[in-house]
Amino acid sequence: MTTPAGGSRITEVLNVQENELLQEWIAEQRQSGAARPDLIAATDLQDQGREFLGLLRQAAQSGEFSNINIPAWSGVRDLLTELSRTRARLGFAPSEVATFVFSFKQPLFAALQKAHAGDAVGFIDDIWTVTQMLDKLGLLTTEAYLKSREEIIARHQEEMMELSTPVVQLWHGIVALPIIGTLDSARTQIVMENLLQAIVDTGSEIAIIDITGVPTVDTLVSQHLLKTVAAARLMGAECIISGIRPQIAQTIVHLGVELNDVITKATLASAFALALQKRGMTVAKVSQIKS
Fold first, then answer.
1. How far apart are CA 279 and CA 119, in angstroms?
2. Which string of b and e fits 125-142 if b means at least 16 CB within 10 Å?
């Protein structure tokens, strides 16, 4: 392929020297530590590099290197986005994912230098073009990586919230929901859903909401509790709130929160005893007689 003097040789280099570029590029990744043989097989790294170069070569045919958002670059964008998401799940660091792109600069620069022998102006122009192009592609991988990590973290937080709000059936017709940690709007929704589902599944008529593990109760937490109680009542279950410590009782009174129509108990044991009585059972302490 003949290119006029002073013209861009980027497309020519990508077409003619693909295999050489690939091997030098992989060597750069290994040297930088971004290859991560503990997380990805050498064959997979080779395949990903070859696929990237093939899509890059196709995009280069458009002659547009400054705007990677045009349709001609969609294949490159899709590949880097999926690669970033996959590597985020595998445990790659964000710098290692970006290095997948940035490490391609050295072999491409070297190839362009040879292609522009005696043409300093053309070489500088092409270096500036590919620098901007690869920087934009590198930023694309970082954005995709961070978005993927945020999704993973959000999913883990949701799973942790579900695990931290178990509903336990204490007796036939009686369920308990021990709450540990802060009760915010997102968690209240999960708490409410878990409790209502447990009421339906077990046919329970009494639900004990234990807040012994809640460090502080403010106006917002009180409102969340009252919403949960109201939702349980709509399902036909009476609620008892246990774990009302002296400092929490003082805080609730100080805040002016109305709990007049909600049964409260200091401990889960006393709440359970009351629930059994409401179910028509007699609760009595049995003393052990020492011989």
1. 93
2. bbbeebeebbebbbebbe
Task: Report how far residue 98's alpha carbon sits from residue 46's, in angstroms, rounded to the nearest whole number.
Answer: 17
**12 contacts 115 by C-beta, under 8 angstroms:** yes
Q: How many CA atoms lie within 13 A of 141 on its CB side?
A: 25
Residues linked to residue 213 through DSSP beta bridges, in sequence order: 180
pLDDT of 288 strictly over 70: no
Q: Are 233 and 239 a contacting pair, CB within 8 Å?
A: yes
Q: Which pLDDT does position 254 carry in this prediction?
A: 84
Burial string for 46-66 (b: 16+ CB within 10 Å, else e) reads eebbeebbbbbbebbeeeebe
Which residue is associated with the tokens 């049995």? 286
pLDDT computed for residue 181 by the predictor: 79
d(CA 285, CA 291): 19
Which residues does 285 contact at the CB level (< 8 Å), separation at least 6? none
Asked if 232 and 195 count as a contact pair (C-beta separation under 8 A), the reply is yes
For residue 81, which amino acid is it?
T
Backbone angles phi, psi at 60, to 5 degrees: -65, -25
By CB atoms closer than 10 A (0-12, 13-18, 19+), residue 72 is: middle
Name which residue leads in pLDDT, 287 or 253: 253
Three-state DSSP at 270 gives helix
Helix (H, G, I), strand (E, B) or coil at 120: helix
Task: Report the predicted TM-score, pTM, of the whole model to 2 decimal places.
Answer: 0.59
Kindly state the tokens that stand for 76: 């490159």
